[in-house]
Amino acid sequence: MEAAMAEFECLGSLGPITAVTNEFLREQTPHNENEYEEQVRRLYDPAAYAIPVRPPVSAAASLFALPPDDDVDRVSRLPDALLRDVVSRLPVKDAARTAALSHRWRGVWRSTPLVLHDVDLLPDTSAVSRVLDAHPGPFRCVYLTSTLAEGFRGLLARWLRLLAAKGIQELVLVNARWPLDYVLPASLLGLTTLTRLYLGMWRFPDTAGLPRATCFRNLRDLGLYNVLVERRDLDFILDRSPVLETLCLQGNVLKLRIRLVSQSLRCVQIIGCFIEEIFVLDAPNLERFIYSDAWHPVGNCTTTVKIGHAPKLHLLGYLALDPRKHVLDVGNTIIKAGIGMSPSTMLQGVKILALEVRFAVRNDVKMIPNVLRCFPNVETLHIMSGKDDQSTGKLNLRFWHKSGTIECIRSRIKLLVVRDFKGGRSEMAFLKFFFQSALVLEEVVILLPDDPTDRMCRKVVSLRHIERASEASVLWASQSVPEGFVRSIERASDFSLGDPFANYCPIGLQSPRLSS
């Protein structure tokens, strides 16, 4: 562990990021070396980010004014709107070169809302300045993800001022230089024409001195990836973004208390963050709330997930039943095993629920009945079988029969998905109870780990012979999908996907290890 810390510290001064990470390392024991490496990768490897959009250009495209064996310039005869659409799909170098094709094209580049990706200009990073100076705007989208020019900080402030003056719709800005906690220029907050903003590896600018009239009236999508942001600044952005629909926070290592107050938010995704409390105070249009890969860098740090006014909430997960990770608060009542339930502690609108359960830990399993009673109308239940880092005794089928009727299992749930199936005694007892109680169950999907043991495969096969209350239920087995599926904000915010968690391909029980 000392060697790992020394290697990490030699990377440079990272300010608060270094402080938090070092504190995390000091709290770990040697057997958590792999966890340390994974957390560092999540924090400092840009490839781990869930930035969802890509520049709408084709680097492989070729543009010809004259088709082969044809001396008639038909392309130049197209209407201006079509020519601008063609130019907008080209890398910025090629877009600028279209001015040399013919007299007809000379004004097209300057009148086209430009797509600028600094990767297309490498290694000549000074070309970014020349393009921003030459083009009158507006800019359709700008990607600054790879610029390493000397004097970058001064350049960035100037670039942002130019974009504010000329207009910009989409901006993706990733810090490719050390230190990774560099404070973004305040001119970022002058980009009031933005519709989408994605930031990676920065410290968010202080909003305390901004004019009260500051408003991001067009901003619909906001993603902050390993961005150090204070609660007051996040509150400010949410308050001044009246049409914001999608919010994604990933890798924030400052201890945050998030309060969601928004009339427009539809999807919130929080990935790998260090959160003390998430309070959905007033979000009347919130439909999806995804919280995954929570990071607890200094020992036990429980995240309280408190649901207030969110009448349209349709999807929620992953809630960990490990009390060291999550505490669920509904209607100002902390949900625990054995407490009495009432309408005020129920979220009637949730139809898709995802839970993380350590089946070898009695207290986790005992939480399942009351947590499910909070969601009486759930139709799809995802359960991730958590890592059994400790075993405190197993619960058999008798426990489930004594727990009484769970209404959503009995009469609502149509699809059950178990991810990272292990086949332990408590897990099998839960599945037996589920199969015997679920009257409307249509499909069960068992997702095995990447390298399942023969024992796991035999347990899956044995599920075929369990008595089922619903004869229509179909059992599938498949491999788990890559880790990053939960992190995909593109999936999370794609409302054409009924269930963004359902990223798997059932293969049945026909493989040799599952057919006997």
- Apparent shape: elongated
Number of β-strand runs: 19
User: Which range best describes the helical content: under 10%, 10-25%, 25-40%, 40-55%, 55-70% or over 70%?
Assistant: 25-40%
Characterize the main sheet. Answer: 14 strands, parallel
Distance N to C terminus? 45 Å
Q: Provide the spatial order of strands within the biggest beta sheet.
A: 1-2-3-4-5-6-8-10-12-15-16-17-18-19
Radius of gyration: 26 Å
Uncertain runs with pLDDT below 50, 5 residues or more? 1-21, 24-31
Summarize model confidence as the mean pLDDT: 81
Structural class: alpha/beta
**Oligomerization category of the chains in this entry:** single chain
Pfam family, one: LRR_At5g56370
InterPro entries: F-box-like_dom_sf, F-box_AtFBL13-like, F-box_dom, F-box_dom-containing, FBD, LRR_dom_sf, LRR_FXL15/At3g58940/PEG3-like
Protein name: F-box domain-containing protein
Domain F-box: 72-119
Briefly summarize what is shown:
The protein is of the alpha/beta class.
Give an overview in words.
This is F-box domain-containing protein. It comes from Triticum aestivum (Wheat). Residues 72-119 form the F-box domain. The protein is of the alpha/beta class. Among the domains are: 2-43, no CATH class; 49-60 and 71-231 and 240-244. 26% of the residues lie in helices and 20% in strands. It contains 15 helices and 19 strands. It has helices spanning 2-9, 16-27, 33-44, 80-88, 92-97, 108-111, 127-134, 152-166, 231-239, 362-373, 397-402, 407-411, 425-437, 454-462, 489-492, and strands at residues 114-117, 139-144, 168-174, 196-200, 221-225, 246-250, 256-261, 267-271, 275-282, 288-292, 303-309, 315-320, 326-330, 333-334, 352-357, 380-385, 415-419, 443-448, 474-479. Strand 17, helix 13 and strand 18 form a beta-alpha-beta unit.
